[in-house]
Design goal:
303 residues, alpha/beta, six-stranded mixed β-sheet, 10 strands, globular, binds adenosine monophosphate, binds FE2/S2 (inorganic) cluster, binds zinc ion
Length: 303
Amino acid sequence: MKCRRCKAEAEVALPSHNTAFCRDCFLLYFSRQVDHAIRRHAMFTRADRVLVALSGGKDSLSLMLELANLGYSATGLHVDLGIPVSSERARKRVEDFCAMHGLDLKVVELAAEGLAIPEVKEAVYRPVCSICGKIKRHYFNRMALEGGYTALATGHNLDDEVARLFANTLRWDEAYLSDQGPCLPDEGGFARKVKPLYRLSEFETAAYAFLRGIEHHKDACPYSPGASFTSHKKLWGELEWKSPGSKVSFYEGFLERGRPAFADRDREKGFELRPCASCGSPTSQELCGVCRVRAAVAERRGG
Ligand code: AMP
Ligand code: FES
Ligand code: ZN
């Protein structure tokens, strides 16, 4: 197969786009998709400072490298979850990557915050993954606001977004459907959240990471039974196979026509948000959810 742009031997086939590219033209295509997403949704400009949440996986590291290559001002943020072996490996991947490419990195250690995930797991009687996600988002937000960054970027790709949207559509979750997308504005104590990889599939970010020689963390979290939305992703893989372009059109169609139909159905509306008495994050209670988890961990330690 030949590259669509330059007619050299193709290295990456993209059935969704009915095309194939050689290495250089694929990297150019990837850059253009990222830049197009950023500009189309006015996520940020080259004058802004962006904080990029780096898990050590292929998506977030690819995003960071591409933002730096495109000339955006990007600083990495890694949240070290304090899980033996797995967190050490993930953190080392992120640190080595940033050192190799001369990129700025900030690290939050949950153990130093009294929130090491193994301790949280023992102290709280809910599934640890959802609490872990909440803790990560809490620190993403705090670090972005405290550091004066314009936006907080995550490495969510098209497959992540489609699978999540699909799951929420199956449940007709109005709060979610009213308020989801690749660029959520800063308001009410929340930093702007952006997902510049939302138009690129998991396969495309994996191909990018491979072609750029990015060493990434591949191990699954020891506490989660598997990646999230695995069965929905499989289903969408089949749909895409039979009808290339389905994922992008489902997601873009939602942004254009679905989301506006659910405007103002936000579950949070009606709740008065105020600053947490301990950390200042927005919450509807005296203490925010993360400070309550921290208190539960401290109590368990003390008792
Ligand atoms: P996940 O929910 O694990 O698929 O992660 C989605 C996105 O969240 C990643 O692409 C990262 O941008 C970010 N992320 C996840 N875990 C971490 C972490 N421990 N530290 C920093 N960012 C993270
Ligand atoms: Fe948070 Fe597994 S419990 S990544
Ligand atoms: Zn708090």
